[in-house]
Amino acid sequence: MFLPQRWRRIHRVFGEEKGIYSYISPEQEVFHRHSHLIQDLKIDGFPRMKDMGTLPNLRSLRINFHMGSKDRKYDPIRIVIWDLAKMFPFLHHLSLQHVFVEYDLCQRLSAHPRLRSLSLYDAVIQDYDPGFLVEACKNLESLTMGSIEFQDKPMPVPNDVVFERMRRLDVCGDNWTCSRILAIVFHCPMLESIQWKNNCFKTRILIHHPVQKNYWTEIDNMLISHSLGDTELAFIFEGVAKSLGKMTECCLIFHTFGPQALKALGLHFSTLASLSSIETSSGIQDVLCSCPKLEILCARYIFAKDIVHGGSWVCQQLRALTMCFRVGKAERDMHRLVFERLSTLVRLETLDMRINIQEDNDDGVLAFRLDCGLGQLATLRELTGLGFYPGGSTKMMQQLGRDDVEWMTENWPKLKIINGRLNEDIEVEAELEGILTSHGVAGTRCRYM
């Protein structure tokens, strides 16, 4: 009865050491006997065709060809010569690492009737005619390319080629790689998700160019992990909104929102469900007051004065909040007012204040104590995780007592984990940790002063 579930996802390891080829469980005979049950197969090493056989119901295949021994360099080029359509007739997703992408492989990819998702990592694109990769992408809905090496020639995409099915593009690499792959974006009119991760902090690649040609009309999920200019980022947000497109997910890494970008992001406030990360305190307050569908927010920090003097929060769907609340020494009364705002987030499951912030002023952090207003958070019945700033500065520390911790265990029935320093006194910390452990609440504490 449990066999179908047991064999649904399989991980195999093949190794070649000193000329001896071997495989690690499941055993070959048993593997072939249950091959019809396998739907998701992950492989480390380079299997031979006879080791693979036919997997009639396989949906996802992931192969990492890198299995070199410690005393020699691995060969980053492996050629796939299998008849993919015959061996895996229902294959939907294929992921290859350390592979040599040449004409025959691309021909097999384009000929597969059901292949819709392709991921290539640490791959080498052949130099003499890289255009054959275009044919392999025509039927794809999702393409991921990470650390790709393009040999000398650019990757041409004929003007009349349109990737009509392409919905997701995930790119990671240096400026050279990203500039090559950018050519594909201009031919994906129905793209819904773009993940753009440039390894270079500074880049001259203007990824807003597709917006100028109205090619990101369907984008609702965007991740960019390199620094963009304020004007360029604003241009992207405005360009997507002009075509009535509204983003639901937006993640920016290594980037600070400027005034133009923040204003343009406001065009998507009505639909945003996930946002990361806003740097300015006033910008965070604007988001909390303007995004009714927001479920996940990851930001840096927000000042209590911006919360108290700002508008009411409308993000009642919020489930995960990662952000540090900064309260000055002269603003003790503001703790209660901040807790009052937090108490409205009744669906909150995770509240994480473990953000590394500069300690260049007199601001402390929100104190999770009953005498500061913690009791107002009795409404957070769904809370499962809580995190505190782990730094060594006393003003950033929490000073919880026994009553505070016992209140948490009584009023947050789903609480499972608390990470961070609870009290700067080691003996008090140990006592509080014992209380949490006795109530089934785990966590990682910081032992240094």
Number of strands: 21
Mean pLDDT: 82
Low-confidence sequence ranges: 69-74
* Helical residue percent band: 25-40%
What is the count of distinct domains? Answer: 3
How far the N terminus sits from the C terminus, by CA atoms, comes to 54 Å
Number of helices: 15
Question: Judging from the principal axes of the Cα atoms, what is the shape?
Answer: globular
CATH architecture of the largest domain: Alpha-Beta Horseshoe
Strand content: 15-25%
- Biggest sheet architecture: 18 strands, mixed
Question: What is the gyration radius calculated from CA atoms?
Answer: 26 Å
Structure classification? alpha/beta
In CATH's first tier, which class of the largest domain applies?
Alpha Beta
Under CATH, the topology of the largest domain is which? Answer: Leucine-rich repeat, LRR (right-handed beta-alpha superhelix)
Commentary on this structure:
The chain is an alpha/beta fold. About 1% of the residues have low confidence. It contains 15 helices and 21 strands. The longest helix is centred in the middle third of the chain and has 13 residues. Helix 8 links the parallel strand 12 and strand 13. The strands form 2 sheets. The protein has an 18-stranded mixed β-sheet that branches.
Quick summary:
With 449 residues, this protein is an alpha/beta fold.
Write the layout of secondary structure elements.
Elements lengths: L2 H4 L2 E9 L2 E5 L3 H6 L6 E5 L4 H4 L7 E5 L19 H4 L5 E5 L2 E2 L1 H9 L5 E5 L2 E2 L6 H6 L4 E5 L2 E2 L17 E6 L1 H11 L7 E6 L10 H4 L8 E4 L5 H13 L6 E4 L6 H7 L8 E5 L2 H10 L5 E8 H6 L10 E9 L5 H9 L7 E3 L10 E3 L19 E3 L14 H10 L5 E3 L6 H13 L11
Parallel strand pairs: 1-3, 3-4, 4-5, 5-7, 6-8, 7-9, 8-10, 9-11, 11-12, 12-13, 13-14, 14-15, 15-16, 16-17, 17-18, 18-20, 20-21
Antiparallel strand pairs: 1-2, 17-19
